[in-house]
């Protein structure tokens, strides 16, 4: 087996799928002043541990990253095992993975990382699966609220119980083994697990489970469906869900059935255990409360109350066409619920007036024992209040709370703080305060005068200064986007606050936000992300592009230093914050400029500077009252006589020490205290790049090391602290100082150090590939800045004309005064700018001729009557068409689609067109069609839609063409910001074969996928003329075209490889996949003269095929499967892009850019000729066993999961032998070789028999 391609994730997932609060890295403090718990986030295959802290001088809590790990598995559920002894014990984390795996994680304070305390695998026993080949429900981790045990509900009807180890037992076990309690407290630990066969108790098809509060023993409430039903059998079996409460005696391993409830609606899907006892059962339009001996219900939707019995639909063709009585019947019963299909629990239940909520996919968190905050998939927030009488809940009430991004999970941190994780938009840290309560106001600045402090407190108390979540809208239509922009980018306008939240008991205020860019559309640099009101365009750049204030040609600059000057004895003033002088090193000496409103060059004798010498280093001393200049002849310290303009704002009040770091040729790193030069710590093998710097024992300090260490030498060393956030950027904080070392081979080492000092925003690394190390959220964000080429010199520059900017000297001889880009988030893995749309974006394409972006969106709009149905149509289609119109009229709103044109830069909508009501937006493309009459090529914006007409009639597709042109303006009409472009609809056509899902061009012809048919059309005189067609299998989901070849992906029947004739008059099937793969996206890979076919399936697997004619491919009729790699995240789009070959090769390489639904970005690239694929394959196998992996997961087993996926979960059919692992290399695993210490790299290379040279 020879590796043919490699897949690597280049941008991690951003959509939050799970979240929880836990005292994971620290114990819960006792007393009134407590440190908030950690926020644990799961982003598909990534685990993040966040801390909640406030920056110095700012009492507003912010989220900071404590740790982040890429996992070799997709986390299906998350639970927290609470500590039994607050103040002495930390919480433990439980993660589950398919099909039935559990990992229990602790925090190791000694290494500042996670550590698995136990691994549990419940797979392999056929008695547990009861003959099932697949389980629709993933394993669900649960934890008792008092920390007495944990459980895992899995395999539909199996429960694994894990008792918690008592603290005294754990301490005695540690003492018996001669071990000491770890620093930071003992972790919560589980003992040996045991299984309960729920099927023997009559519990089958478990949907959800939750531990109940206020019981002496752990009590588990299970929501299950003994006899499953479906929508087509609702009249026969409608109320099939049930509840069972089990009391678990974990010591004796006995379980008792306490109480049960039957006859729950079939759409009961989730449980929310109340802290006051009992639990809420969430259905689609119904909320139920159940506890032992009491229950109540509340209707929050309009689709649960029983209506009137349906009247028979009778046709009399002699009197009128069948479509006439069909129309009348559809309008009369469009919103009617048949009595035999309505849930019994809704009978007699009160209705929440003014609400029509859909609770499917909702997430909740309890603000108090009787108030639940629900976040719906539409982005709407609602409070659910429990009203008790005599100790029992008798009534439920719902009130509105506002809007936010669609939430995937919520968790409460303390009495006020709440975290809302979103899969599609911004995840928020929220403060919830009861209305009328006294807010904890931020303290005034320490350096503020009494009058300034009073004014700051007065301003903070004003309600308009509190930033709240988005209010409940008063109407529909075009909403003001300023508040959305301020929420995303935290501008000054955002602090003016929004309207009142509404009639609720709590006020919700957004304190911090984490960006999210999932799910992705086509993975362009401009990406359509989000849904509903959280929909936006995300502008992604791999490199940071600064905003250039001015640029002057100035060749020969080799170094830059901007220095401040503050005269001693004078009070600090804001004007002293500017830089006073700029020194520029050149080969023949130094140039000095005075940085006032203009840059003035100083004479050679000014201020005592050695301008005849080349400056090596310059800076400030003694609170910027002295300037120091280092040059080859020595060191010059000077005190300028002229009053400068700048100095540090308010001096730091900290008492942190000053340290001197020395990196010796032997690889020894020494830390001295300044000015005493007392040796504090030593670290061996620093150049080796170990993951953790461990100091030498005190007895061995100051041991001489004479021999030089192997490996590159340390060329530059820097330790910085970023504890104080700069003005206007509260996220630019990294509480723990960082140690950064640059090695001779260009490698960069970065470590978190110990507490010390205060500083700025980050570190800039000059060189051929310059990059930023920005201190953000407690860590370093690495952003390249190689768009300008090599940078020879760099200095921060703070001037009245360039606040908080910098100056760079490029290798091309230019001196640039720049600023960091505005409205671009830098606390992300790639610089990110979001353009809010207040709609769900479906597709985006670039119209190059006008430099505009075409966008296909949908949102809730006021009802608009549909076109009248023609008399004599099919009754089934007529009924579905009229019923949809009547239902939308009854509701008053409906989902409307529109096409927009956006101008880059200001990102304003310059033109929009609403599509007909009822049409579902599916695809958009910019096509360049050649007119068969004139031969001219015409660029068009094409939109493909679908009009669903019910179950009994095929959906109708439609294609609409728009022509973009310059807008005609009358003389003198030139509005500020008016667009020069507009568009007109020039052509539309229906396709009865089915929905239009994809479009492409082939040699000037249109290739279109409509239903299960692939067609080619010629553009002739403003009309489409079909020239050829091919009938595929079920539904074509994607199209890819290269030269005369077409690759069609089917939603259930794999790939079909077609060839088009020269004049597009014939489509010939060359080969196809017989494995029945559920294709979500497909494209080509090109490696020179070799063509590969790539596809992403619904089973989260990337697959590779080839077209060859030999016996194994049945003479070419069957696509030959080459390899696969399981990624753990469903890929939504593949986009072919040219890949530069490594020099000196000139081979044409085409890679596929993959965008995932979790907001990740990956690259599937072919291995070019000359790449040692066999060595990479051996290295991959070695790394899977030789390196420790996060949470104890096996990357090789995870990458081969496609071999075990059944067809029902998107795995397809296995024809012949299973695909071998390794044809598609795991680039994420191979990249860990570069992260290993150099000594470990050498050991691994020696085992492979290859040199360990870094590429």
From TrEMBL:
It is found in: Nucleus. InterPro entries: Beta-prop_RSE1/DDB1/CPSF1_1st (IPR018846), Beta-prop_RSE1/DDB1/CPSF1_2nd (IPR058543), RSE1/DDB1/CFT1 (IPR050358), RSE1/DDB1/CPSF1_C (IPR004871), WD40/YVTN_repeat-like_dom_sf (IPR015943). The keyword Nucleus applies. Residues 898-1235 form the RSE1/DDB1/CPSF1 C-terminal domain. Residues 35-295 form the RSE1/DDB1/CPSF1 first beta-propeller domain. PANTHER family: DNA REPAIR/RNA PROCESSING CPSF FAMILY. This is Cleavage/polyadenylation specificity factor A subunit C-terminal domain-containing protein. It comes from Elliptochloris bilobata.
């Amino acid at each position: 087996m020879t590796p043919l391609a490699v897949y690597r994730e280049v941008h991690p997932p951003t959509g939050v799928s799970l979240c929880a609060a836990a005292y994971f890295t620290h114990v819960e403090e006792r007393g009134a002043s407590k440190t908030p718990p950690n926020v644990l986030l799961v982003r598909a295959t990534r685990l993040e541990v966040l801390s909640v802290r406030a920056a110095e001088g700012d009492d507003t809590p912010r989220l900071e990253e404590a740790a982040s790990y890429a996992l070799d598995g997709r986390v299906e559920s998350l639970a927290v095992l609470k500590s039994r002894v607050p103040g002495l014990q930390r919480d433990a984390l439980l993660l589950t993975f398919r099909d039935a795996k559990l990992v229990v994680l602790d925090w190791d304070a000694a290494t500042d990382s996670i550590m698995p305390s136990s691994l549990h695998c419940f797979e392999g026993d056929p008695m547990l699966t009861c003959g099932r080949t697949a389980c629709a429900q993933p394993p669900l981790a649960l934890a008792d609220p008092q920390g007495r045990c944990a459980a895992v509900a899995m395999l539909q009807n199996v429960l694994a119980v894990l008792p918690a180890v008592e603290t005294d037992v754990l301490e005695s076990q540690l003492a018996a083994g001669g071990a000491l309690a770890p620093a930071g407290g003992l972790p919560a630990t589980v003992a040996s697990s045991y299984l309960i066969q729920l099927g023997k108790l009559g519990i089958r098809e478990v949907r959800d489970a939750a531990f109940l509060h206020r019981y002496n023993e752990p009590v588990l409430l299970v929501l299950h469906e003994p006899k499953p039903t479906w929508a087509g059998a609702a009249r026969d079996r409608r109320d099939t869900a049930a509840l069972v409460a089990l009391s678990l005696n974990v010591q004796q391993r006995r379980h008792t059935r306490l109480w049960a409830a039957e006859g729950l609606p079939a759409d009961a899907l989730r449980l929310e255990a109340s802290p006051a006892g009992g639990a809420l059962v969430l259905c689609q339009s119904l909320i139920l409360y159940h506890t032992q001996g009491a229950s109540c219900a509340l209707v929050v939707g309009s689709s649960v109350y029983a209506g009137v019995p349906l009247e028979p639909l009778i046709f009399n063709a002699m009197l009128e066409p069948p479509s006439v009585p069909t129309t009348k019947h559809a309008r009369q019963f469009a919103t009617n619920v048949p009595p035999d299909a309505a849930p019994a629990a809704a009978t007699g239940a009160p209705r929440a007036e003014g609400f029509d909520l859909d609770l499917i996919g909702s997430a909740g968190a309890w603000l108090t024992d009787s108030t639940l905050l629900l976040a719906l998939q539409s982005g709407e927030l609602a409070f659910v209040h429990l009203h008790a009488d005599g100790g029992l809940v008798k009534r439920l009430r719902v009130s509105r709370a506002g809007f936010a991004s669609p939430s995937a999970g919520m968790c409460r941190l303390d009495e006020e703080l709440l975290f809302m994780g979103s899969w599609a938009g911004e995840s928020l840290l929220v403060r919830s305060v009861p209305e009328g309560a006294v807010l904890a106001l931020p303290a005034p600045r320490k350096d503020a005068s009494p009058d300034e402090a009073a004014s700051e407190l007065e301003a903070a108390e004003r309600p308009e200064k509190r930033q709240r979540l988005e209010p409940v809208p008063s109407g529909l239509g075009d909403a003001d986007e300023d508040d959305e922009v301020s929420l995303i980018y935290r501008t000054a306008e955002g602090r003016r606050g929004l309207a009142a939240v509404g009639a609720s008991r709590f006020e919700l205020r957004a304190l911090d936000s984490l960006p999210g860019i999932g799910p992705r559309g086509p993975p362009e640099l401009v990406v359509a992300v989000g849904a509903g009101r959280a929909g936006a365009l995300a502008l992604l750049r791999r490199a940071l592009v600064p905003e250039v204030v001015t640029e002057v040609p100035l060749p020969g600059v080799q170094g830059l230093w901007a220095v401040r000057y503050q005269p001693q004895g004078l009070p600090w003033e804001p004007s002293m914050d500017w830089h006073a002088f700029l020194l520029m090193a050149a080969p023949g000496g130094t140039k000095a400029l005075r940085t006032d409103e203009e840059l003035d060059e100083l004479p050679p004798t000014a201020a005592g500077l050695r301008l005849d010498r080349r400056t090596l280093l310059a800076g400030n001393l003694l609170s910027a009252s002295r300037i120091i200049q280092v040059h080859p002849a020595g060191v010059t310290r000077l005190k300028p006589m002229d009053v400068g303009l700048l100095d540090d704002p308010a001096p730091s009040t900290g008492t942190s020490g000053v340290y001197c770091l020395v990196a010796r040729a032997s690889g020894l790193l020494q830390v001295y205290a300044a000015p005493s030069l007392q040796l504090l710590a030593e670290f061996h093998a620093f150049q080796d790049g170990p993951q953790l710097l461990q100091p030498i024992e005190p007895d061995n300090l100051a041991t001489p090391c004479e021999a030089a260490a192997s490996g590159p030498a340390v060329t530059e060393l820097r330790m910085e602290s970023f504890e104080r956030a700069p003005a206007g950027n509260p996220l630019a904080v990294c509480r723990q100082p960082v140690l950064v070392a640059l090695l001779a081979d260009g490698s960069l080492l970065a470590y978190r150090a110990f507490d010390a000092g205060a500083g700025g925003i980050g570190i800039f690394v000059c060189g051929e590939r310059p990059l930023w190390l920005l201190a953000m959220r407690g860590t370093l964000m690495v952003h390249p800045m190689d768009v300008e080429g090599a940078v020879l010199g760099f200095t921060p520059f703070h001037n009245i004309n360039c606040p908080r900017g910098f100056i760079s000297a490029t290798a091309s001889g230019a001196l640039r005064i720049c600023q960091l880009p505005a409205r671009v988030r830098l606390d992300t893995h790639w610089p990110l700018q979001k353009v809010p749309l207040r709609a769900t974006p479906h597709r985006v394409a670039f119209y190059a001729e006008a430099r505009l972006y075409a966008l296909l969106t949908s949102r809730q709009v006021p009802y608009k009557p549909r076109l009248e149905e023609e008399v004599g149509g099919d009754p089934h289609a007529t009924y579905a068409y009229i019923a949809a119109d009547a239902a939308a009229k009854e509701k008053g709103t409906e989902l409307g689609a529109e096409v927009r044109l956006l101008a880059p830069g200001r990102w304003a909508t310059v033109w929009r067109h609403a599509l007909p009501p009822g049409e579902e937006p599916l695809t958009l493309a910019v096509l360049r069609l050649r007119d068969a009459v004139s031969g001219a090529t015409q660029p068009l914006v094409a939109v493909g839609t679908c009009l669903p007409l019910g179950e009994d009639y095929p959906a109708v597709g439609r294609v609409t063409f728009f022509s973009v042109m310059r807008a005609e303006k009358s003389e003198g009409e030139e509005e500020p910001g008016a667009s020069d472009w507009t568009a007109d609809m020039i052509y539309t056509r229906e396709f009865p074969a089915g929905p239009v899902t994809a479009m492409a061009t082939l040699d000037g012809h249109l290739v279109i996928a409509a239903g299960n048919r692939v067609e080619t059309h010629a553009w002739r005189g403003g009309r489409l003329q079909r020239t050829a067609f091919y009938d595929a299998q079920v539904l074509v989901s994607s199209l890819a075209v290269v030269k005369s070849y077409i690759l069609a992906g089917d939603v259930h029947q794999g790939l079909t490889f077609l060839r088009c004739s020269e004049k597009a008059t014939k489509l010939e099937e060359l080969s196809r996949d017989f494995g029945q793969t559920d294709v979500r996206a497909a494209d080509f890979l090109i490696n020179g003269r070799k063509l590969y076919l790539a596809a992403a399936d619904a089973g989260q697997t990337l697959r590779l095929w080839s077209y060859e004619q030999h016996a194994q491919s049945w003479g070419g009729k069957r696509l030959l499967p080459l390899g696969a790699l399981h990624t753990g995240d469903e890929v939504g789009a593949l986009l072919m892009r040219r890949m530069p070959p490594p020099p000196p090769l000139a081979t044409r390489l085409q890679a596929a850019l993959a965008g995932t639904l979790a907001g990740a970005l990956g690259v599937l690239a072919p291995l070019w000729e000359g790449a040692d694929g066999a060595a990479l394959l051996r290295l991959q196998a070695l790394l899977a066993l030789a390196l420790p992996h996060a949470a104890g997961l096996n990357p090789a087993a995870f990458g081969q999961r496609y071999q075990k996926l059944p067809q029902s979960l998107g795995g397809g059919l296995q024809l012949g032998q299973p695909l071998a692992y390794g044809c598609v290399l795991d680039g994420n695993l191979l990249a860990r070789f570069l992260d290993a210490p150099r000594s470990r790299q050498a050991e691994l290379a020696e085992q492979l028999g290859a040199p360990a040279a870094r590429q």
